[in-house]
Amino acid sequence: MVSAIKRNGRPLYELARRGIEVEREARQVEIYRLEILDWQPPMVQLEVECSKGTYIRALAHDLGQML
């Protein structure tokens, strides 16, 4: 919800600031490289090489859910 992707001509971050959440379509992205640089539980530092449109915040959330 904090992206500049537009819904009905309005960036999603504007809607988020107003407390409005809308359904968003999943977007296909590519992760070319994901490397663990440091791991001191519960913190991990990653280096990511990815395609345009990848939201690292969403990637971190998904990885956390999987772990």
Description:
It contains two helices and four strands, in the order ββαββα. It has helices at about 10-15, 55-65; strands at about 5, 10, 30-40, 45-50. The strands form two sheets. The protein has a two-stranded antiparallel ribbon. The chain has a two-stranded antiparallel ribbon with strand order 3-4. A hairpin with a 2-residue loop joins strand 1 and strand 2 (about 10). The longest helix is centred in the C-terminal third of the chain and has 11 residues, at about 55-65.
What's the topology here?
Elements: E1 6-7, E2 10-11, H1 12-17, E3 31-40, E4 43-50, H2 56-66
Antiparallel strand pairs: 1-2, 3-4
Quick rundown:
The protein has 67 residues and is of the alpha+beta class. Helix content is 25%, strand content 33%.
User: Count of DSSP E strands?
Assistant: 4
Tell me, briefly, the overall form: elongated
* Beta-strand fraction estimate: 25-35%
Strand order of the largest sheet: 1-2
Rg, rounded, reads 15 Å
The secondary structure category is alpha+beta
Highlighted features:
2 helices; 67 residues; two-stranded antiparallel ribbon; two-stranded antiparallel sheet; alpha+beta; single chain
